Amino acid sequence: xxxxxxxxxxxxxxxxxxxxxxxxxxxxxxxxxxxxxxxxxxxxxxxxxxxxxxxxxxxxxxxxxxxxxxxxxxxxxxxxxxxxxxxxxxxxxxxxxxxxxxxxxxxxxxxxxxxxxxxxxxxxxxxxxxxxxxxxxxxxxxxxxxxxxxxxxx
Length: 154
Prior knowledge:
Shape: globular
Strand content: under 5%
Number of helices: 7
Number of domains: 2
Number of strands: 0
């Protein structure tokens, strides 16, 4: 992603005869526990332009997969994940369920976990998911606060 962002920035700067960065911040990512959080992360992404005040509803954001998922667009290149496909048996039913899912209420803990995971570049999932990843990579992974731990005075 860093390489792609760098190339794109150089290209746009050359074409538009400008300098500086193209995007506001660094690229952020977080491995997701598919079973628990994939659909929640999809909803989080679909609603970001709405939360940012860029659009009034997710279907109005041009760069979103939402329009295709709810039957308003036809992006043939879009790859639907198995969780989206499992919402219903037909396109129309899936579209309806997806609209309900995205517009449904978001649990405060879910939103907080996704945001913290992105900001820290850590795993998005339950404690069990974190344990499974730690076991696989033979390395400790955990949520930590910013900075060094405070000194313990006895």
